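ok trying this again, last paste got cut off
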Amino acid sequence: MTVEYKLTIRTSTRWGAGTDGTICVVLVGTGGESASHVLDRRFHNDFEAGSEEVYSVSDRDVGELLLLRLSNSGGVAGDWLLDTVQVSSGERRWHFPFFRWILSGTHAEVLEGTARLPQHARSEREASARLEQLQVRHRMYGWRSPEATQGLPGALDLGEARPLPKDELYRGLRDGSYEVVIAKTLAAIQLHLPMLASAWNGLVDIFDFFKGIELPQLSHRWKDDHEFARQAVQGINPIHVTLVRALPEGMPLTDADLRGLLSPGLTLAGAFEAQRVFLIDFEILEDIPMFRKVGKGGEEERRWAPAARCLLFLDDSQRLRPLAIQLGRDAAQDPVFTPNDGEYDWLAAKIYVRCSEGNTHQMVSHALRTHFIAEPFVLATMRNLPDPHPVYKLLRRHFRYTLAINDGARKGLLAEGAVFDDFIATGGPDKGHLQLGKKGFARWTLRDNQPRRDLARRGVLDPSVLPDYPYRDEALPLWDALEEYVGGVLRHFYATDADLVADGEMQHWWEDLTTHGLPVDKLPCVTLRRVDDLVEILTTVLFSVSVQHAAVNYLQYEHYAFVPNAPLCLRRAPPREKGKLGPADIAAMIPTKSQTLWQVAIGRALSSFGDDEEYLLHTGGWHEEYFHEPALHAIRERFHARLAAQLESLKARNAQRDVPYTVLQPDRIPCGITV
């Protein structure tokens, strides 16, 4: 019997998504395969970017559709970025989400989109199609050798013989890549920058950098002590502030040193007892090699970022302010600076702390704990979960561009001779920044990325202990919303733990992840047998690539571009004596004009959003929709409703804040790591 199939095909809106190639389709179902049909409408330019085309195909009834085999004949501008295909025949409907490229001269099997666990496959043909898709992906997504990633998470193997899959290429937009943003920023600065004398003064001349681009708002308050402390709770790296009950070892400090700095009648011991003293500590920098290079003429260039630490005091206004700073661990040679010391001593001490924080932030809080720990999950997913798997559908939107961004960071920022060698303290011949990343990874487990657990560990979960902590107050509701969303999706498919144990694709996912991506001791469980464990793991991953990445990434321009606030290198060793520094010493220790230029440009690029960004709370809903089941739509709508309520609460809190905290606005948090 001949039946008519109506195919509604949507091509992506991305630049270059359309094709001039000839597209053919074979419908494959439980009753066999159709003939090959050319999809072509006379006198019409088919498959243009952003188009939605309808085609009719008459053929025998092939039963319940399992997949569409789409072939692309190729030619000039032949690659085709297919979003979705909807097929109908009478009352029957099938949905085929894809959101990937079909390259010129190739074919792709687009699997029917109903989410199913492998044990629920309807036929041998469906099971074999899932397996065949994974075999193709295994060839595309290989792991780097253990030697190449020793001491760091597993990563994608790339080279001339194994290029980055086109599905993972960065944006495909002419103006979307961060390299373009860097180039435009450098051009804008240099266009408006006057000719400066060789005597560069970074404290004064820095303002000339912003005649063609926006001036960071903190530039007029960066020296203020309350501003310094504010950045510990809502700045670029708000995950270090820790309640302490006593002085850190090797930090000599007395009540006499703090005269006038505590509340009237309060001693240092009393401040500890009253839970009013907090610590930010960058001891991880101890023993990390700093930039040191001898030029051809014998001149030596050095940079510093000490293992600094700072005590913060919760004052009577319920705000933090810095109380004491030590730029090392040795009580004999590393003096403790306080606001009672000279103006320039205290200012220099705060700048050194920010430099130490910056180097730690870039390699550990940002690169390692978001970008690089995400990559093994991307690879395990692409290699082991076919399109119809519900976990693939749950995760895929949150992994878009991550592999490309990480590859770009390794080549453009971290590699020998790359940008980080030009302007951060831990860069250079001894690869201190890579050693710092490995040191951070050795200490890290996935549970460290769970905000409630981390806040409790640091003693700052309770608002009565630390009342003003915007990162905590905005991150926790987002974690809770994600946990409900992830749990709702997973428990819809895994009614019992036995369902997860019987899911061979997820068991292969786990084996691949723990063999090549992350050691099992970095993960919450040794075996993947409990649905609760999977909910915990995937909630942590989605939180890390969306909320946490937003928190530690999108303030980079505001935080780093006004370089005296947070230089990423200092050109003089930390002072060993008090009372020796003046304004000329501050100008001499902060970055050069060239280093400043790089720091501004990189900060701006890494704080940018793409034209095709998809946010957690996205206007009009998510473009890449993988689930079409009504029950899953209800779970998604509940998630979006919680995010909308959180957005309104955040706006109300921001109205009461001296400095609004905007990076954790749900409608400005990208779904994944896209820069």
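PB: full thing came through this time. The mean pLDDT is 94.
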